[in-house]
Amino acid sequence: MKKERSKKYRRVRALRVLTQSFFFGLFGYLLLVSHYTGEDYLGKPVDAFFRFDPLIALTTLVAGRVVLTWMPIAAAVLVLTLVLGRFVCGWICPLGSLHQAFSFIFKKAGLLKPKREETASTGWKYLVLAVVLVGSAFALNLAGWLDPLSFLVRSFTTAVLPAAALGLSQVVRLLYAIPFPALAQPLSQFINNLAVNTVFFQAFAVGLLFLGALLLNIRKERFWCRYLCPAGALLGLAARWNVLKLRIDEDACIKCGLCTQHCQTQAEPYPNPKWRSSECVYCATCAAICPTAAIGFPASPKPEPVKTIDVRKRRVVLASLVGLAAAPLVRVAPAAKRAHVKLIRPPGALPEPEFLARCVKCGECMKACPTNGLQPTLFEAGLEGLWTPRLVPTIGYCEYYCSLCTQVCPTDAIRELTIEDKVQVKIGTSWINKNRCIPYALGKPCIVCEEHCPTSPKAIKLVLVQAALPDGTVSTQKAPVIDQDLCIGCGICENKCPVVDEPAIFVTSIGEQRSETNRLLLPVIGDGE
C-alpha cells in the first residue's frame, strides 16, 4: 500500500510538470500572438492570465476605484484557494514554473544545494504585500512592479523576446554567409511572422532585473516565490483554511528530513505540526521523494489550528507606514505640476491620475504596438509612472488605423476604442522647428511630413515661404505649417522627417484630449459670455 501511494505522488508530480508546461506554453502563445497580423482585431484574450490574478484585481479595485467585468474570475481564484490551497502558485503561475525550472537546473548543475534546515523568514513577501495594499488605499498602484504576471510580461516584451529575435537574426545572417539558404529562409520568415519589437528603452535594466530574479534561485529554490512575491502572499493568506492537509505516517517516517530539505517553498513538512499550509504550493515533491511513502495529502474539511505567518507585527506596521509614506513621496515630482513635454500617452489612456492608478506596467500595449512606438517611461511621469507606456515618435508612430493597444490593456487604463473613435482622439500636437526644417532653413524642397500626414483633411498644410541663401539669393519653396485643430499627435511626421538626428518637426503632449489642463491656450473665464 505504501509503495503504491508513493507511485501515486510521483504521478501527481509528473502531472504537475505537464500542467505547468501547458500553462507556460499558453502564456507564451498569448504573448506572441499579441501583434498586428494585418487586421485591427486580435480576436484572442491575450490578457487572459491577468484576469485570474487576485492581486491585480484587488489593487485595481482599491487604487482605481473601479469594478471590471473580469474581477469575479479573480475572486473565484481566491475562493478556490480557500479550498485547494496555493494551487495557482504550484501548478499554473508561469513565473513560478520558470523559477522552478531554473531551480531544477541549478540543482542538477550542483549550483544549488538545499539545506537541511532553512532559517530565513518567508515573511518578507507579506511585508511587500502590506506596502502594496496600503499604497493602493491612497490610489498608488505598486502591484505592477512585483506582480508575477506584470513582471514576466514586461521582461519578455522589453528584453527577452527582443534579445532572442536579434540573436536569431544574427543566426540567419550567418546561415546566409555559410551559405545555407535552405535553413536561413524559413528561419527568417519565422522571425518576421513573430513581429517582435526589438527596440526598447531600459531593455538592459529590465533584462538585468529578470536575470537577477532567475539567478536568485541559486541561493534558494524558488527564491522569488518564497520571499518576494506579493501575489503569493495574498494567496497564502487565503490558503490557510484549505481542505487538503499534509499528513505524515509517524510509524513509516524515518525522520530523514528529505521532505523539508527539498521543499520548494519552505513549508516545513516535517515535523507534521510545523507544516504551514500558507506556504505549501502542493507540488507533491515531498510525497514523491519520501523513501518510505510516509507523506500524503488527504482531504479533510475539519479545521485545524492556524499556523502563525512568519512575520512580526512590528514589521507589518513598518511596512504599512512605508506604503503610507510612499503615496505622497513618489508624487513629489515635476510631472505632478506640469505635464512632461514628451509624455505622450497611447490613445484611449485615461486622465493621468486615473491612468496611473490602474496601469500595472505590464507592457502588453508595448508588445502589441505595430510600429514599436510605445516605450516604457523612466521618470517622465515621476517614479509612480516608471515603466508605464509613452509614445516615442522617433522610434515609431501611432498607426492611424490601429487600435491594438486599446484591446490588450488588462485593467482598462487604456480604454478600448474602435477605429472610428480612435482616429478622433488627440494625444498631442506637432510643432515645426524652422531652424532645422529644410524649406525654411535651407531653401530646398521637402514635403515629406505633409505627404505622410494621415488625417483627412490633412493637419499639415503647405504654404510658400522665402528663405535667404548664403549667396544672397532668395529661394521660394513650399513649407509645412500645422493646423492644430486637425493634428492628433500621431507622430508619423516626426518619425518620417528626413532630418534624422533631431527631426525638424516634433510632437509634444500638449493639447491631449484626455487632459483639461495640458492645453496651449486655456479657456478664459467669460469667453462664452
The amount of beta strand, in percent, is 5-15%
Can you tell me the overall shape? elongated
Helical residue percent band: 40-55%
Order of helices and strands: HHHHHHHHHHHHEHHEHHHEEHHEHHEEHE
Sketch the major β-sheet.
2 strands, antiparallel
Radius of gyration: 28 Å
> In total, how many beta strands?
8
State the secondary-structure class: mainly alpha
Helical segment tally? 22
Outline:
The protein has 529 residues and is mainly alpha-helical. The chain is 43% helix and 7% strand.
What would you note in describing this structure?
There is one protein chain. This protein has 529 residues and is mostly helical. It folds into 2 domains: 2-36 and 44-296, no CATH class; 344-508, no CATH class. Helices cover 43% and strands 7% of the residues. It has 22 helices and 8 strands. It has helices at residues 2-32, 54-64, 71-84, 87-92, 94-108, 124-137, 143-146, 148-177, 181-194, 203-215, 223-227, 230-238, 258-261, 285-289, 313-329, 352-358, 364-368, 404-408, 419-422, 438-442, 448-452, 492-496, and strands spanning 247-248, 295-296, 374-376, 389-391, 429-432, 460-468, 474-482, 505-508. The strands form 4 sheets. Strands 1-2 form a two-stranded antiparallel sheet. A two-stranded antiparallel ribbon has the order 3-4. The chain has a two-stranded antiparallel sheet with strand order 5-8. A hairpin with a 5-residue loop joins strand 6 and strand 7 (474-482). Helix 2 packs parallel to helix 6, helix 2 (54-64) packs antiparallel against helix 16 and helix 6 crosses helix 12. The chain is elongated and about 105 Å long. The relative contact order is 0.12.
